[in-house]
Amino acid sequence: MQRTILRVMAIAVALCPAAAVAQTPKAATYITDEEVKKVNSQPGTDRTITVVDIGNEHFAVGIIHRGATGGAGRGTAAAGGGPPAGEPCGEAVSTAAQSGVPSGITHDSQTEGYVIVSGGGTLVTGGHIVNGRKSSAESDVTKILNGPSCSGTIAGADVVKRAVKTGDIIIIPAGVPHGWTDITDHVDYLSFRPSDHVLEAGYVHPSIKK
């Protein structure tokens, strides 16, 4: 009996590395400049190009286009086009938001990296969300863009406002609020989103899906 148990354990140990190797992707994903431009020409603000299973996590690439914010006193959430109609989140305050304070979003588990490819504006990061709303668990924003999120007004003494331009790179960890102001014309940026299986792998934007 003991020999049988040892033999079974030996087989299991031998198979584990093979199983791990079998689950590891063996092919690279190529996204052409033409495909990026085609997706960026489609309607909408935040367009995911593809979500790839890279083994230990999922990795999403998107192209975001934001138009002018209409002045220094108007802001725009970093994703999703404004607070979703979900459950309350963030800090609840009874006083009205101050004018000039931007709206923004924070993602529960999703880190983002931005590469500004055209235009520019002021990126607002840090602080905390006030009078926010959670994203719907069934929405595309949740499933293929950002995962569970909270949108609302950005506030706090630790808020950072930074003018960004073409060529700049920004990394926004999960849980950090972010939004935009002072976009005079537009800002386009590639968004890279590594996550612990937060976003659904296998998605390809319909405009380039073969």
Note down, in words, how this protein is organized.
This protein is α+β, with helices and mostly antiparallel strands. Helix content is 18%, strand content 37%. A hairpin with a 4-residue loop joins strand 1 (46-53) and strand 2. The longest helix has 22 residues, at 2-23. The protein starts with a helix and ends in a 15-residue tail after the last strand.
Helix content: 10-25%
Give start-end ranges of low-pLDDT stretches: 1-22, 80-84
Shape: globular
Quantity of strands, as a count: 13
Tally of helical segments: 3
Could you report the average pLDDT, rounded to the nearest whole number? 82
End-to-end separation in angstroms reads 55 Å
Biggest sheet, strands in spatial order? 1-2-13-6-11
* Largest sheet report: 5 strands, antiparallel
Please report which band the strand proportion falls in: under 5%, 5-15%, 15-25%, 25-35%, 35-45% or over 45%.
35-45%
Structural class by sheet pairing and helices: alpha+beta
SSE arrangement:
Layout: H1 2-23, H2 33-40, E1 46-53, E2 58-67, E3 75-77, E4 88-89, E5 103-107, E6 112-119, E7 121-125, E8 128-134, H3 140-146, E9 149-155, E10 160-164, E11 169-172, E12 178-181, E13 186-195
Antiparallel strand pairs: 1-2, 2-13, 3-12, 4-8, 5-9, 6-11, 6-13, 7-10, 7-12, 8-9
